[in-house]
């Protein structure tokens, strides 16, 4: 998962995801009515394996392996705050969002301009159309590169060309994203 995808995920949540594997297992059990059988089906392991992970008996407890830890994390992320995420997405698509980033920006512009790429801190309010395009691309399985292209086009128009008031021939190169955060209303 790239910086842009992580930033979108953080923006859609209002509470942090449980950090420890034990807390994540407790969440999965709670969201499946305490059924170790249903949690096992979600994770693709046996019911007995889940029981070993969550037992209170000191000698019987076995921690999940690295592959299972990853599966537990993915299952929790898929089920964490679904209604909140849906509301925040609708709000971002309707009202837009504020995009905060530190990345390398370069230009393809007419002669006489400085087109050397350099790292910039940018905070820019972007419209709901950009949010709709980003979410549609993410839903279609687009990778970090496609999302970067969408944001480069939006930042080029909003930040560098000031919504079409200047630098009409300027094309933006957006790369080396150090971080990407989104603030939704």
From TrEMBL:
Pfam families: HTH_23. It comes from the Bacteria. InterPro entries: Cro/C1-type_HTH, Tpg. NCBIfam families: telomere_Tpg. This is Helix-turn-helix domain-containing protein.
């Amino acid at each position: 998962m790239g910086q842009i995808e992580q930033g979108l995920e953080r923006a859609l949540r209002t509470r942090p995801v449980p950090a420890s594997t034990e807390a994540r297992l407790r969440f999965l059990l709670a969201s499946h009515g305490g059924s170790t059988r249903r949690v096992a089906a979600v994770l693709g392991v046996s019911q007995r394996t889940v029981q070993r992970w969550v037992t209170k008996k000191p000698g019987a407890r076995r921690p999940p392996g690295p592959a299972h830890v990853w599966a537990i994390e993915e299952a929790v992320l898929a089920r964490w705050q679904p209604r909140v995420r849906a509301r925040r997405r609708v709000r971002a698509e309707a009202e837009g969002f504020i995009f905060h980033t530190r990345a390398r920006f370069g230009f393809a512009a007419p002669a006489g301009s400085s087109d050397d790429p350099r790292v910039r801190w940018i905070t820019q309010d972007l419209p709901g159309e950009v949010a709709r395009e980003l979410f549609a691309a993410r839903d279609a399985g687009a990778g970090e590169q496609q999302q970067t292209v969408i944001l480069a086009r939006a930042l080029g128009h909003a930040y560098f060309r000031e919504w079409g008031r200047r630098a009409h021939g300027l094309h933006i190169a957006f790369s080396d994203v150090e971080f990407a955060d989104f603030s939704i209303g």
